[in-house]
């Protein structure tokens, strides 16, 4: 490096644009090719040079130009997370995004969230990603037993992972929560508290985890000699107002339930509101076990027995699985199932 280069002020050229390899080269006094190879951790570039280049790149907020990367490699370095608006209402979007980005932070990949409404064509965002080549991999949720998105992604050969399982004979990466065990253990807990007439706030019937939750609930009813109270006209996709009003009506009936299993933390709040609107007391007239994605329900209503579904961990597992699928790992090695975690710290209520 000559004296002119050594004395060059470390300020980027006044082009007014985003930082580029040329910017880093100017600020370090290195050639553009050397900067590019240093950022790619090329073995022929010294460790001191790599560290200097990375430090400057970090300081000026340099990001590789995705269009250029795509031209050179055929990759976008993008993972697309396709979520419905209903998932935002249920409060799972933020922790899932956090979990995914924790894993992607150590990779070249960036996360793009693609929202859509479940009332519209669920294939539309998938077709867009496929037709435009917008992502190297896709994460989808709210899976159905015979999910057309899984069929299309498999047919087109785009790596993907599902938050939830399918029943279509296709071996694909997934991460899921054991909703069957959740419902089974919830019934066990309620029966141990002396409850015998149980109601379930369940998922909508078209989703796979509906059958899982129903199976656990019904098996536990048989094993522990409890009875079901019908609430099939309402599910966790209904609005909180609809859930509250329907449950108030049920609690005002001649033979209301005395035990409640809620498949949704936000739905549990609506159930409690309906119960109390019917002049009933939680913990006295009925006990509740709810699945939750956070501690908020336990803080607000400690009398509710909660089972924790760690959505942040789900995000991590989904990110690892989709990267594994992109890298060509066998799908059967990219499948995981998390278990419910009891959070109850409230003693069994005393019945009169």
TrEMBL record:
<feature type="region of interest" description="Disordered">
    <location>
        <begin position="1"/>
        <end position="20"/>
    </location>
</feature>
<dbReference type="InterPro" id="IPR000843">
    <property type="entry name" value="HTH_LacI"/>
</dbReference>
<dbReference type="InterPro" id="IPR001761">
    <property type="entry name" value="Peripla_BP/Lac1_sug-bd_dom"/>
</dbReference>
<dbReference type="InterPro" id="IPR028082">
    <property type="entry name" value="Peripla_BP_I"/>
</dbReference>
<feature type="domain" description="HTH lacI-type">
    <location>
        <begin position="19"/>
        <end position="73"/>
    </location>
</feature>
<dbReference type="GO" id="GO:0000976">
    <property type="term" value="F:transcription cis-regulatory region binding"/>
</dbReference>
<keyword id="KW-0238">DNA-binding</keyword>
<dbReference type="InterPro" id="IPR010982">
    <property type="entry name" value="Lambda_DNA-bd_dom_sf"/>
</dbReference>
<dbReference type="GO" id="GO:0003700">
    <property type="term" value="F:DNA-binding transcription factor activity"/>
</dbReference>
<keyword id="KW-0805">Transcription regulation</keyword>
<protein>
    <submittedName>
        <fullName>LacI family DNA-binding transcriptional regulator</fullName>
    </submittedName>
</protein>
<dbReference type="Pfam" id="PF00356">
    <property type="entry name" value="LacI"/>
</dbReference>
<dbReference type="Pfam" id="PF00532">
    <property type="entry name" value="Peripla_BP_1"/>
</dbReference>
<keyword id="KW-0804">Transcription</keyword>
């Amino acid at each position: 490096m000559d004296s002119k280069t050594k004395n060059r002020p470390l300020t980027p050229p006044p082009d007014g644009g985003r930082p580029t390899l040329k910017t880093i080269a100017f600020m370090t006094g290195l050639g553009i090719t050397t900067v590019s190879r240093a950022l790619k951790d090329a073995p022929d570039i010294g460790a001191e040079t790599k560290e200097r280049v990375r430090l400057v790149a970090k300081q000026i907020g340099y990001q590789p130009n995705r269009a250029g990367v795509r031209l050179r490699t055929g990759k976008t370095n993008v993972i697309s997370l396709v979520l419905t608006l209903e998932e935002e209402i249920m409060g799972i979007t933020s922790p899932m995004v956090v979990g995914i980005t924790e894993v992607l932070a150590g990779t070249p990949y960036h996360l793009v969230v693609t929202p859509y409404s479940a009332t519209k064509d669920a294939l539309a965002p998938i077709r867009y990603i496929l037709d435009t080549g917008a992502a190297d991999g896709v994460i989808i949720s709210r899976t159905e037993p015979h999910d057309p998105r899984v069929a299309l992604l498999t047919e087109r050969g785009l790596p993907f992972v599902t938050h939830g399982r399918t029943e279509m004979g296709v071996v694909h990466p997934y991460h899921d929560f054991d909703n069957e065990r959740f419902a089974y253990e919830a019934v066990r807990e309620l029966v141990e508290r002396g409850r015998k007439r149980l109601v379930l706030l369940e998922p909508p019937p078209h989703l796979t985890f509906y059958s899982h939750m129903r199976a656990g609930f019904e098996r536990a009813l048989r094993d522990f000699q409890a009875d079901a109270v019908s609430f099939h006209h309402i599910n966790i996709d209904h609005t909180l107002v609809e859930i509250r009003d329907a449950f108030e009506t049920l609690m005002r009936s001649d033979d209301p339930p005395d035990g409640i299993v809620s498949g949704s933390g936000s739905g549990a709040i609506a159930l409690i509101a309906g119960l109390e609107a019917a002049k009933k007391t939680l913990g006295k007239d009925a006990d509740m076990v709810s699945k939750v994605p956070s501690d908020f329900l336990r803080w607000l209503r400690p009398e509710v027995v909660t089972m924790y579904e760690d959505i942040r961990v789900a995000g991590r597992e989904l990110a690892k699985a989709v990267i594994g699928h992109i890298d060509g790992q066998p799908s059967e090695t990219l499948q995981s199932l998390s278990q419910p975690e009891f959070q109850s710290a409230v003693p069994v209520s005393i019945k009169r």
